[in-house]
Write a structure and sequence with these properties.
single chain
């Protein structure tokens, strides 16, 4: 496994270990904004890192979770039992996927769209392979946000 993927797996595990107690707190008290924000940061970070590494399955799962958490954060959705249960299932699946990436084994994705639908969102569509027609195709643009201070250090 490349260093980038190893770092990604380590970050997912570390984030999961920090987010799991927050998820338990949030289940007990859906008004706990700090717990909600911690869970959102975990999902958002995994999605961003997965996008950088082109790990589409992680992105698709995180997209649904992130949309749902954003709706709860802005008050347009209630954190009912079904939502919390669905969110927990997605977070568990992220851990299973990280284990599969680390072990270099395949893991069926047949139930993953259903996990996102259980939150009330349509899963994002799969991207088509860049070279489906056999012709050279430019990869989609990626952006990375870094604080200005870090950019200045990197540029010097």
């Amino acid at each position: 496994m490349s260093d980038l993927f190893g770092d990604f797996v380590a970050d997912v595990r570390d984030g999961y270990e920090r987010a799991a107690p927050q998820l338990a707190r949030w289940v007990e008290d859906p008004s706990d904004r700090a717990a909600l924000d911690a869970i959102f940061r975990f999902v958002h970070t995994v999605r961003g890192n997965a996008g950088f590494l082109d790990l589409e399955r992680f992105e698709r799962l995180c997209d649904g979770a992130e949309r749902g958490l954003a709706d709860v954060r802005d008050g347009t959705r209630a954190a009912d039992g079904d939502f919390v249960k669905g969110l927990a299932a997605i977070i568990i699946r992220l851990g299973e996927l990280a284990d599969a990436v680390e072990a270099g084994v395949g893991l069926s994705d047949k139930d993953e769209p259903g996990l996102v639908r259980a939150l009330g969102y349509a899963p994002i569509e799969r991207r088509q392979p860049d070279n489906a027609s056999g012709e050279s195709v430019q990869r989609r643009m990626r952006t990375v946000r870094i604080p200005t201070e870090q950019f200045e250090v990197l540029a010097s």
